[in-house]
Amino acid sequence: MNIAVQEPPLDYSFRSIHVIQDLTSEEPRRGLRPLRHSKSGKSLTQSLWLNNNVLNDLKDFSHVVSQLLEHPEKLAWIDLSFNDLTSIDPVLTTFFNLSVLYLHGNSIQRLGEVNKLAVLPRLRSLTLHGNPIEEEKGYSPSLPHRQYVLCTLPCVTTFDFSGVTKADRTTAEVWKRMNIKPKKVRIKQNTL
Q1: CA separation for the pair 95, 92 (Å, rounded)
Q2: Cis geometry, peptide bond prior to residue 144 (ω within 30 degrees of 0)
Q3: pTM above the 0.85 mark?
Q4: Which GO terms describe its cellular component (predicted)?
Q5: Digit-coded pLDDT (tens) for 66-87
Q6: Could you give the CA distance from residue 4 to residue 36 in angstroms, rounded to a whole number?
Q7: Which residue, of 60, 97, 139, 156, has the greatest Cβ tally within 10 A?
Q8: Which residues does 7 contact at the CB level (< 8 Å), separation at least 6?
């Protein structure tokens, strides 16, 4: 196992951070174990916690993360819970090693935002509860919200802190066949 996975997170939670750029001047919280740093002074962790702040966008996220982490491409866990994000910023989809993404307690209004995350091959754990999407007609912690997410992100094994079972996968597949129309394939006809 990679040593960096065992490193404590770079923790900026509860710092009243309004913009991502503030991370470069803000001191991270200290945990029980000290963070290790490279010779250049950047953190060797693969986890970034930004929960319980007042972020409403992720402008310059990639740039700032590259200033903080020695290996930003290895970022595996991002906690953005309890902020004021209204959408899932496409910048999150550039971190292909992302396996844990916490977005609960934000202001995300459209369930369709989840579609953006389909490009993340290693995403295993996702949270979305506590967002306005819960107010969509027919929302329930199990249906159809859960089914939509499981259809869109088939590799997720934990959703809203609840494990995904084989029965969940089966129900999601049935739900998908009943509710999501397949895209029509247009066949170009050759004219003679």
Answers
A1: 6
A2: yes
A3: yes
A4: cytoplasm
A5: 999 999 999 999 999 999 999 9
A6: 9
A7: 156
A8: 35, 36, 43, 44, 45, 46, 47
